[in-house]
Amino acid sequence: MTNLITRTVAHINSSLNKFQVKRFFAVVLVGVLVLTTNIAFGDSNKALGERVREKVEQNDAQRPKTTGQWYKDARKTEGNPGKRLEKIGQQSGEALKEFGSGYVKGAKETARDVGNSAAQTGRNLSN
Predict the structure, then answer these.
(1) Taking Cα atoms as reference points, which of 73, 68, 69 lies closest to residue 83?
(2) Interval 22-50: pLDDT, tens
(3) pLDDT in tens, 67-92
(4) Separation of CA 116 from chain center
(5) 3-state SS of 31-87?
(6) Quick one: pLDDT at residue 45?
């Protein structure tokens, strides 16, 4: 009996290999993905770049915002390591202050959302 099952499975496998079902399914899957994916190349990249630039320039911090600005700043203080360390300290302080304010804002929003969810759950349980 097991010999019959083994031969049947082997026959099915050889039949599937003849038709190359795996390759067929792979081609069909790629075709479906390509045809159902909506890609707009031109406008989205430009708009994204503009939004990122706006976000970067929105911050009024005095520290460098791009690597190009950072390297330019480093070249200005190249011969004076003390001055460079002082600037790095100031810039790090600004970055930590900015990060801390964002962290506090995020924590407040999270706490508000948790409170709203708890209130909604309480209302759902009372009904």
Answers:
(1) 73
(2) 777 788 888 888 888 776 655 556 777 78
(3) 888 888 888 888 888 888 888 888 88
(4) 27
(5) HHHHHHCCCCHHHHHHHHHHHHHHHHHHCCCCCCCCHHHHHHHHHHCCCCHHHHHHH
(6) 64
Q: Which helix (H) or strand (E) holds 99?
A: helix 81-126
Give the C-alpha distances (Å, rounded to integers) separating 124 from 60, 70, 87, 115, 117: 45, 53, 55, 14, 10
The alpha-carbon radius of gyration of the chain (Å, integer) is 30
pTM of this structure: 0.38
- Cβ neighbours for 16, distance < 8 A, ≥ 6 positions apart: 22
Q: What angle do CA 111, 112, 117 make, to 5 degrees?
A: 95
Question: Distance (Å, rounded) from C-alpha 112 to C-alpha 106?
Answer: 10
Confidence of residue 19 (pLDDT cuts 50, 70, 90): low
Contact 77, 84 (CB under 8 A): yes
